[in-house]
Design a protein that fits this description.
The chain is elongated, with a radius of gyration of 21 Å. The chain has 8 helices and 7 strands. Helices cover 48% and strands 22% of the residues. It has 2 domains: 136 residues, 3-Layer(aba) Sandwich (Aminopeptidase), CATH 3.40.630.30; 61 residues, no CATH class. The protein has a 7-stranded mixed sheet, sandwiched between helices. 31% of the residues are buried. The protein is α+β, with helices and mostly antiparallel strands. The structure holds coenzyme A. The site of coenzyme A has 18 residues, from β4, α6 and α7. InterPro entries: Acyl_CoA_acyltransferase, GNAT_dom, NAT_camello-type.
């Protein structure tokens, strides 16, 4: 069993936290691409492009090039979407982590997980902008090499305990359709999926990129909520 420890964020973590966040966000590129290609509507459009080009040009090569162009356009849209997401995160709360989370005048917090002194994971919690009264769990990432050992769960439980100690009744989080490992983590913590919507950006609309909102009612303390690290 890999030994790990959790602690609050320090300014010296800044660059590594940015790196961990960006890497975790970008890793879903392939999964999103595959999810988009699995949609019947996308397959139908690509097939229609193929048939139309074949009919118009009489050339199989042209028809195949047309479909390749369509695939490339989807791939580029997915990349743009992920880069938008990374830029957004880095320009919001992560731009000044101390001010966003660790300022004593704000009730919010940022934690990191370490293995042998190396930062391998992050989580944060703060009052939710989109929903008054609720708090939002954010920036949950564990480096690939340290996954599946309970670190993500321990990070989330620490944040949830912090919320409970501050009298918070409802914790929400936003996750994307591609983050299936995270969905399992949230399920195991007792979160419930409430709504889904298309992320409001052009590349997201192009690939129908869904964001899910999960919520947890603090106070309904389940066995899983007991910190076990
Ligand atoms: C989501 C993430 C943080 C999970 O971290 P982790 O340290 O591997 O999670 P844990 O080991 O604590 O697992 C927590 C729970 O989720 C389940 N889980 C996590 N990854 C899983 C996987 N790949 N397959 C099956 N179950 C999984 C575990 O079974 C565990 O549940 P249990 O305790 O009831 O058995 C990690 O996969 C990650 O960083 N992903 C990329 C970034 C991301 O998507 N972040 C979410 C942003 S919304």
């Amino acid at each position: 069993m890999m030994e790990y420890s959790l602690r609050e964020y320090r300014d010296s973590d800044y660059a590594v936290v940015h790196e961990v966040y960006s890497t975790g966000f970008r890793e879903h590129s392939r999964a999103i691409f595959v999810m988009v290609l699995r949609r019947l509507r996308v397959q139908a459009v690509l097939f229609a492009v193929f048939l139309a080009l074949l009919e118009l040009s009489g050339s199989l090569l042209t028809a195949m090039l047309g479909v390749s162009g369509g695939l490339l356009a989807i791939r580029v849209s997915v990349q743009c979407l992920l880069e938008q997401g990374v830029r957004l995160g880095l320009s919001e709360d992560l731009q000044n982590i101390r001010a966003s989370y660790m300022d004593p005048s704000r009730v919010a917090r940022f934690w990191v997980a370490e293995v042998q002194g190396i930062l391998v994971g992050t989580v944060a919690i703060l009052p939710c902008v989109e929903e008054r009264g609720a708090w939002e769990l954010k920036r949950i990432t564990v480096l690939k090499r340290s996954r599946g050992r309970g670190i993500g769960k321990a990070l989330c439980q620490t944040a949830m305990e912090f919320a409970a100690n501050h009298g918070v009744e409802r914790v929400v989080l936003f996750t994307s359709m591609a983050q299936s490992d995270a969905h399992r983590l949230y399920d195991s913590l007792g979160f419930k999926k409430e709504t889904e919507f298309v992320w409001p950006s052009l590349p997201a609309r192009l690939v129908n990129f869904l964001v899910y909102k999960y919520a947890y009612k603090v106070g309904v303390r389940t066995e899983q909520m007991l910190i076990s690290y």
